[in-house]
Amino acid sequence: MYLKQQKALSDRLKAVLSDLYQIQLDAVVIEQPPEIAFGEFATPLAFELARKLRKAPKKIAEEIVAAIGAVPGFAGFEVAGAGYINARIERGAMAKDVAATGEVTLGQTGIHSLVEHTSINPNKAAHVGHLRNAILGDTFVRLLRAAGQKVDVQNYIDNTGVQVADIVVGLTQLEKLSLGEVEALMTRLAAEGTRIDYYCWDLYARVSQWYEADEAEKATRRKIRLDTLHLIEHGSNETAEIADRISTAVLRRHLETMLRLDIEYDLLPRESEILHLHFWDLAFEQLKQKGVLYFETEGKNKGCWVMRRPGVVIANVPAEETRSESPVRPAPDEDAKVIVRSNGTVTYVGKDIAYHLWKFGLLGRDFAYNRFFSYPDHECWISAETGEEEHPHFGGAQAIYNVIDSRQADPQANVIEALRGMGYTEQAARYTHFSYEMVALTPRCAMDLGYTVSEEDQARPYIEVSGRKGFGVKADDLIDKLIAATLAEVVERHPELGAAEQQQTAAAIAVGALRYFMLKYTRNTVIAFDFKDALSFEGETGPYLQYAVVRTRSIFRKAETTPAAALAALSGIDVTPYLAGDEDVSIWQVWLRAAKTSLLLEQCIATAEPAYLAKHAFQLAQEFSSFYKKNHILTEADPARKALLLATAAVAQRELIRALGWLGIDAPEVM
């Protein structure tokens, strides 16, 4: 609704500028005044036109306001300060419109987007840092779907990489196990109730230390690692079979962990199939044919296939093709990105280019597919070399979002540049690196987890997680600890609930706390996770938002009505007199905030920043709390005013539940 009013104002201002000054603008800047007393919208348009029109901004603003006339949904316009134009909404009419608004959508029906997130190496248990990736990606999927897009969710599995090789080295070299013995180990661990991803967590730390433990053996052990990696990449051998068994078992555990946070996937594309189905061969031919790659014959990259950089003249191109009047050949481009090394191996970027050509439907080859994991309402598929005949269609997306941490900015930029160089400019423009910073632990959190923290580290704002050192918090341990802390509070507050309901409520609060903590920070912010901060019922936390919804439910139970009935009742009441005075500001602020849901959905998608929605939900909860304290809803004597107050609680509940749902957070019945 707020978007509708904003567009109406923008369209009218454009028309006025065309009539008054014969000026055509594509867009008009519309802001929100710092205080509600100044109105709901403001524009600095007069300041922007002052130089062009050679008039004082205030004079221009006066001319524009005089020419605006009546605009549906607006009560009036005025000049403020040295030339701002403020606009006031017809509050009563807008409140009724907001009350009647059901589903929110941006109407992006037909757009097919692909979001890749989580993408944990299947070599050990997921940790707290992985949760930020998964929660960000899952939330963005929910936002795109709310906007009307068709979204495929992919979780890329690097099952042939060095991290998996390290686990295989640990099993074969440290534990001295064969394939049969590895399978027996997995059976025994399952019988004992020991999780394979937890076992690998400890093994990964041990093998990392083993590589460095003996200086005399370091080179030999590194050679074992490299040989193991090559065997896994090649496939069809016992080492590769061990890698497949372990990585598949760990992957299944990752999906179970993420399901606890209500995170689901559609497809698990694996590195092994990208290699064995020869995706790179097809991509390599395209890259060469379109001049994106060239073979370097000089300098440090001699013998490599490297990627041509825009505007850089290439040394090994014939002189007549350099378009240079100088007969002197330029030096090799030492900063060119190597895609194929001189020994013939393909870099990470090269394989990623091939994978993204498939994502956009530009490769000319597809995976085979098998069912892998069942959710309540759909199947998650996994890539294969041979698979089931009937399967969903994957790939061929119009827009791609890759949730990958900020350290991968350069490789991601190289893939985009390769697409652009191949002539796929539209696809390159629709490729978004959804980057984010790391998650660390506060010293207090590390000590809560049982780690010994030095005095020096205790003085730091955060301590970085390190999987190789075995320092960090496993995702499931974190979730368990949050639920346990919450359960104690729920049991104390609600002894009347059954044990199952207490557990369910505690899980909803714990997951809500975790998801909101990960989402309230902008993506370029390092997060220092802390149990006490995340679980607080006060301040900017998930439980605070959930409690606001619980409070609204209490209101309707006591009033013996429903939110739907309260919103419907508003249509027959003139509420304008109850929204006009200064004493009614707390009521109007709830309605105005509730009207902005579509705007926030649009902003979050345009900027790939879910934190804006988290802030919006928190501000709505704050404004509802202020409204609740200032207005005695159940004892209000004026029937019309009481109806408005109940509708205000209802619209706050509706929009909070909607926003929380997009954030992946449930609103429990009690807290």
TrEMBL record:
<dbReference type="InterPro" id="IPR035684">
    <property type="entry name" value="ArgRS_core"/>
</dbReference>
<keyword id="KW-0030">Aminoacyl-tRNA synthetase</keyword>
<dbReference type="GO" id="GO:0005524">
    <property type="term" value="F:ATP binding"/>
</dbReference>
<dbReference type="GO" id="GO:0004814">
    <property type="term" value="F:arginine-tRNA ligase activity"/>
</dbReference>
<dbReference type="InterPro" id="IPR001278">
    <property type="entry name" value="Arg-tRNA-ligase"/>
</dbReference>
<dbReference type="InterPro" id="IPR009080">
    <property type="entry name" value="tRNAsynth_Ia_anticodon-bd"/>
</dbReference>
<dbReference type="Pfam" id="PF00750">
    <property type="entry name" value="tRNA-synt_1d"/>
</dbReference>
<dbReference type="InterPro" id="IPR014729">
    <property type="entry name" value="Rossmann-like_a/b/a_fold"/>
</dbReference>
<dbReference type="GO" id="GO:0006420">
    <property type="term" value="P:arginyl-tRNA aminoacylation"/>
</dbReference>
<dbReference type="GO" id="GO:0005737">
    <property type="term" value="C:cytoplasm"/>
</dbReference>
<keyword id="KW-0547">Nucleotide-binding</keyword>
<dbReference type="Pfam" id="PF05746">
    <property type="entry name" value="DALR_1"/>
</dbReference>
<keyword id="KW-0648">Protein biosynthesis</keyword>
<comment type="similarity">
    <text>Belongs to the class-I aminoacyl-tRNA synthetase family.</text>
</comment>
<dbReference type="InterPro" id="IPR005148">
    <property type="entry name" value="Arg-tRNA-synth_N"/>
</dbReference>
<dbReference type="Pfam" id="PF03485">
    <property type="entry name" value="Arg_tRNA_synt_N"/>
</dbReference>
<feature type="domain" description="DALR anticodon binding">
    <location>
        <begin position="545"/>
        <end position="671"/>
    </location>
</feature>
<keyword id="KW-0067">ATP-binding</keyword>
<feature type="domain" description="Arginyl tRNA synthetase N-terminal">
    <location>
        <begin position="7"/>
        <end position="89"/>
    </location>
</feature>
<protein>
    <recommendedName>
        <fullName>arginine--tRNA ligase</fullName>
        <ecNumber>6.1.1.19</ecNumber>
    </recommendedName>
</protein>
<dbReference type="InterPro" id="IPR036695">
    <property type="entry name" value="Arg-tRNA-synth_N_sf"/>
</dbReference>
<keyword id="KW-0436">Ligase</keyword>
<dbReference type="InterPro" id="IPR008909">
    <property type="entry name" value="DALR_anticod-bd"/>
</dbReference>
